[in-house]
């Protein structure tokens, strides 16, 4: 059961209506996450802005997917893992990479593995990563810019993952075929 309201264009606060209309135009549907975020027009705006900025970073489609899905899986987001699986397919990311991320398996290349490991270390340690982790990150070809870009992606995912946990946002019909559930111990 959702604990937060999922708005549509008609029920949304006036400050969110135009943004929701843009979402429908861009995606051909209103993502449930956007409907939830609509209760706070500024949070919806922040999320969409950060998303757009993150997609414009130096990361390619595979790297964006590694950062997004590493965080989504670590946070156990029932909504974002399927959504980003679908997004990865539209971005032409190899489905084997997406499945490896969903199943917490190793990455196909050292560079992507280091990106995943660094992202998870930043998440798990609240940004307090070691000098050796930074050195390993730089050794595979990343730099200061990419460290900061991971943090940008984490800001986006914190908004969406935490919102979806609180709202229990239903997975959109377009992504239900990619349903995912966090492993329980």
What's the topology here?
Blueprint: H1 14-27, H2 32-37, H3 41-55, H4 61-75, H5 80-90, H6 95-102, H7 110-124, H8 131-139, H9 144-167
Helix pairs in contact: 1-3, 3-9, 4-5, 4-6, 4-7, 4-9, 5-6, 7-8, 7-9
Identify the notable features of this structure and list them briefly.
single chain; AhpD-like; 185 residues; mainly alpha
Question: Helix content range of the residues, please?
Answer: 55-70%
Indicate the CATH class of the domain at 60-178.
Mainly Alpha
Say which CATH homologous superfamily of the domain at 60-178 is assigned.
AhpD-like
Amino- and carboxy-terminal Cα gap: 23 Å
Helix-strand string:
HHHHHHHHH
Mind describing the biggest β-sheet? none
Individual helix count:
9
Q: Identify the quaternary structure here.
A: single chain
Structural class: mainly alpha
> Kindly state the mean pLDDT as a whole number?
96
What can you see in these coordinates?
It is a single chain. By secondary structure, this protein is mostly helical. It has 9 helices and no strands.
Structure at a glance:
With 185 residues, this protein is mainly α.
